[in-house]
Structures are given as C-alpha cells and as structure tokens.
Amino acid sequence: MTTMSKRTALITGASAGIGERFSHRLAREGYNLILVARRRERLEALAESLAGKYGVDVRVLSEDLGDPQAPSRIIDQVQTWDLHVDFLVNNAGFAAKTSLVKSEWPELQQEIQVMVTALTELMIRFGKQMVSRGYGHIVNVSSLAAFAPTPAGMLYTGIKSYVLNASESADMEFKRSGVHVTALCPGFTYTEFHDVQGTRDLVSKLPSVFWQDAETVVDAGYRAVLAGRPVCVPGAFNKTMGGLSRILPEALRYRLGSRGRIY
After folding, report:
1. In terms of residue numbers, what domain contains 60?
2. Residue (of 220, 242, 237) closest to 229 by Cα position
3. How confident is the model over 245-261, as pLDDT tens digits?
4. For residue 140, which phi and psi values (nearest 5 degrees)?
5. Residue 172: inside a domain, yes or no?
6. Domain assignment of residue 151, yes or no
7. What is the number of domains present in the chain?
8. Backbone phi, psi, residue 33, to 5°
9. CATH number of domain containing 54
10. 218: in domain
11. Contact 93, 115 (CB under 8 A)
C-alpha cells in the first residue's frame, strides 16, 4: 500500500460539476491530482486554486476523450511523469441533444467513445496497475437513469446501464486484489450539464425533492468506494425510485419509455 503523501487521483471531466467537486474532495483528503478535461483555461484556474488551498501537487491534461487516442495519451503522460494513479474518477460525459433519427453519426459515436470506450479503457488499464500494487479505488459516474425505462430515441440510459454493469463486473474481479470499483448513480444534480444540453428550463420545473447538489453526490460516492460498495445511489428518494424501476415488468418499462418526450 502506498503512503498517503504519494497517492495520486485522476479525474476526467474535472473542470465543472461532479468532476470539480471530486477534485476538491480528493485534494482535501491529501491526494495529488491529475485533472483531465477539454478546457485548459478552466483546468489551469482550478489547479491553481486547489494547489493554493490544499497544498497538493496538481497537474492538468487538456484532452478530448472523444478522440480514440486520448486514453493512451493520458496513460503515457502519467507514466512519463513517473506517477501512478491510486484513485480514478471516470466522470467525463454528455448526452446527444437530438433523437437517434435526427442525430448525425459522429455525435453518437462521440457519446459512445467518451462514456463507454474511453471509460472502459481507463478503468481497465489503470485498474490492472492498481491490482498489481494491491491497492486502488475507481469511481465510474453512471446515473439513476441506468435503472429507469429507456426513453425513445436516447442512447444515454443504455450507456449508463453499461457503466453500472461494467463497474460491478470489474469490482467483482478487482476487489480480490484490494481494488474497489463503484458505480455512482446520481439523480438530478445541480451542475451545468442541463445548461449544455439545453434542458434547463424543462428540468427546472421538477420538484426540489428530485434534486441534489454535487457536493452531496461526491461525498456519497467517495464514502461508498472506500467502504467497498459496488453501487452507490445517493439519497433516499433516488434509492426508492431506482429500486421501484428495477422491479417494473419489461413490457411496462417499454411502454413507459416509448411515451417519453425527451426531445
């Protein structure tokens, strides 16, 4: 086991929302950080703030995980720095803004690349390194949508279901060597995600019971992976909704999904 002073955390999608809050939480816990996102200016500003506030070493990598070569470049750069990742947060993600029929394939391909292919590559390649050292933690950000009926014309829920199932599978194998993987499945969270998607006005009409702040979500995910829990659904309301969704008959799930008006 490495000492705390030498532990390093890598967070994707670190420039905002859940990723940014994970950066603060892990810096507060004493981890040195590698922050990954597309927006270098925001990363550098965040890195300067974290280093000054918590006294940790913070490095930035401006990478677009929609590029199939990005995960390899990240792993190679970590190796060049002579560092190893002890805590990985796979947070980067987005959702296509239009239905399957209305979307161009490159947009859907990027959605799959970022949240399926890149996430899986980073989880497995860094996970194997953790297994060889006998220590490590991985949080993959899934969603409460992973339990919900799939809306018509939307890949996002299927992708998040994959993240949930892949995380559980990895945890079953990795935990034998002291490495824990948790699928963090938040519901509606106060971040800029809905602004980017153009759905802020729609989701703002939901009652406050549906919503959580990013810090609460991150705290739940952090405690869950340290406790070795493979799935974390933050909040009693979300746990109830997720549990009810899982027991719906498949025919009913299909009917509910087909009536969804997402776009």
Report:
1. 4-258
2. 220
3. 777 677 766 676 666 64
4. -105, 120
5. yes
6. yes
7. 1
8. -125, 145
9. 3.40.50.720
10. yes
11. yes
Q: Residue 30's beta-bridge partner residues?
A: none
Six-digit token string for 6? 């030498």
Query: SS3 letters for the chain?
Result: CCCHHHCEEEEECCCCHHHHHHHHHHHHCCCEEEEEECCHHHHHHHHHHHHHHHCCCEEEEECCCCCCCHHHHHHHHHHHCCCCCCEEEECCCCCCCCCCCCCCHHHHHHHHHHHHHHHHHHHHHHHHHHHHHCCEEEEEECCHHHHCCCCCCCCHHHHHHHHHHHHHHHHHHHHHHCEEEEEECCCEEECCHHHHHCCHHHHCCCCHHHEEEHHHHHHHHHHHHHCCCCEECCCHHHHHHHHHHHCCCHHHHHHHHHCCCCC
Residue 263 lies in a domain: no
Which parts of the chain sit beneath pLDDT 70? 1-5, 190-211, 244, 248, 252-254, 256-263
The pair of structure tokens assigned to 208 is 């406050």
Predicted TM-score (pTM) of this structure: 0.87
Q: Is the dihedral of CA 60, 63, 64, 69 positive or negative?
A: negative
